Every structure is written in structure tokens, then in C-alpha cells.
TrEMBL record:
The keyword Hydrolase applies. GO terms for molecular function: deSUMOylase activity. One of its GO terms (biological process) is proteolysis. GO terms for cellular component: nucleus. The lineage of its organism: Eukaryota, Viridiplantae, Streptophyta, Embryophyta, Tracheophyta. Keywords: Hydrolase, Protease, Thiol protease. It comes from Nicotiana attenuata. Gene3D superfamilies: Adenoviral Proteinase, Chain A (3.40.395.10). InterPro entries: Papain-like_cys_pep_sf, Peptidase_C48_C. Belongs to the peptidase C48 family. It comes from the Eukaryota. Transmembrane segments: none annotated. This is Ubiquitin-like protease family profile domain-containing protein. Residues 1-162 form the Ubiquitin-like protease family profile domain.
Length: 222
């Protein structure tokens, strides 16, 4: 009887754990959906700008480590609402490869679905009123890293160059160390300024929902 009682108690505990796990997953999914929607709308962003105000969005990508590995990979894409494309800049390959293309395809299908659910076409003058099932993926010819560790540096520099309307081929592996030092110096200087001035980073600003069209703070290239 004692043994049967222990087995029954164990089964009850396992059942409670399964129920708790299921509820937690449901809450996390609901929370994630809300966060994604608020991000697109321009809520919970420090800049307080909705996607409705933008023609193009810069999207950093991160590939998860393979099973048994710790390394990861960073690259980035430019989401164009008008052309319905995602232009991918990847320092590991100027042609698509399986892991990366499958990763980007998720966003190419997910983002249009999200925009449709949020009636995005009514608020973004670039997107238009004709939703698409998926965005086209364009793999761009970009400078390639010469090692296995500088993908993040290349992704950041690509973003910097494209924001300044410069050619990504203005950067190559020989300049990576200089750019790393520049990033480190800027981060250190900013941290010291915050400490000396007593400045505290403000909490995330609450942007407004879809309203009148407004220009973005960043001057996107044509």
C-alpha cells in the first residue's frame, strides 16, 4: 500500500508539473505575441517610433549554436515594406546557405502575417493595401570575414555603413581591429560620461499607437 501510495503521489506531482508547464508556455506565448505587436506599433521602444512611420527596417539576425556547440553567428537584413523584400548581408556567405536561409524564411513569412493581423497596410504609406504571403529574400554580395569570430563586428559595420548610405565594400577584414577599438572606446567614453554626469538611462518610452504619419528620426536611404 505504501508503495502504491508513493507511485500515486509521484504521478500526481508529474501531472501538476505538466499542467504548470503548459500554463507557463501559454502565458509566455501570449506575452511574446503582445510584445511583438507592441514593437511593430512603436510601443515599448525607447525611440517611440512605430513601423508605420518607416520605409525600411534594419533586422539583426542570430543563428543559434548547433547541438553541442557554443558558437553562434550574427548577420543582418533590411526589411523593405515597399518592395516586400528582405536584403540579407552576411559576412559568412554572399550566397544563401541552408541554416541562414531557413532562419530568414521564418521572418519572411511571419512578418507579413503579423502586419496583416495589425492592419498595417492602413497605416504605412509604403506597404500599401495589398498584403503578401511572404517577403522575397535577396542575398546581397558583401565583404567576407577571414576568420570565424568577427561576424558580429561585420554585422554592426554593415549597419553603420548602410545607415550612412555608404557601400559595404568600404569595410573589410583588415579594418576589423580598428573598428573594435572604436566601439570599445565609444562604449567606455559613454559609460564614463554617464558616471561623471550622473545621467541615468530613462525607462522605455511609451510611443503612441498608429496615428498621424510621422517621419522617422533616422534618415533612411532611398
Amino acid at each position: 500500500k505504501k508503495r502504491n501510495g508513493r507511485i500515486k503521489k509521484k504521478e500526481q506531482n508529474q501531472k501538476r508539473k505538466r499542467i504548470f508547464k503548459q500554463r507557463l508556455e501559454e502565458e509566455l506565448e501570449e506575452s511574446t505575441n503582445e510584445k511583438v505587436a507592441n514593437y511593430v506599433k512603436g510601443l515599448d521602444l525607447s525611440c517611440g517610433i512605430s513601423w508605420a512611420s518607416a520605409k525600411k527596417i534594419f533586422c539583426p539576425f542570430r543563428l543559434k549554436p548547433r547541438t553541442g556547440q557554443k558558437s553562434t553567428h550574427y548577420f543582418f537584413g533590411i526589411l523593405d515594406f515597399e518592395d516586400k523584400t528582405i536584403s540579407v548581408h552576411d559576412s559568412m556567405g554572399s550566397v544563401p546557405y541552408d541554416r541562414a536561409i531557413e532562419h530568414v524564411r521564418i521572418y519572411a513569412r511571419l512578418i507579413p502575417h503579423c502586419l496583416k493581423c495589425l492592419n498595417f497596410g492602413e497605416h504605412n504609406k509604403y506597404n500599401g493595401q495589398s498584403p503578401v504571403e511572404k517577403f522575397n529574400i535577396m542575398w546581397m554580395n558583401t565583404p567576407q570575414q577571414a576568420n570565424s569570430v568577427d561576424c558580429g563586428i561585420f554585422a554592426l559595420k554593415y549597419i553603420d555603413l548602410r545607415l550612412n548610405r555608404e557601400d559595404v565594400f568600404n569595410f573589410d577584414q583588415s579594418q576589423s581591429l580598428t573598428f573594435k577599438r572604436e566601439l570599445a572606446a565609444n562604449l567606455w567614453a559613454h559609460g564614463k560620461w554617464k558616471k561623471d554626469s550622473g545621467y541615468e538611462t530613462p525607462k522605455e518610452q511609451q510611443g503612441h499607437d498608429y496615428g498621424d504619419f510621422e517621419e522617422t528620426l533616422c534618415e533612411f536611404f532611398d
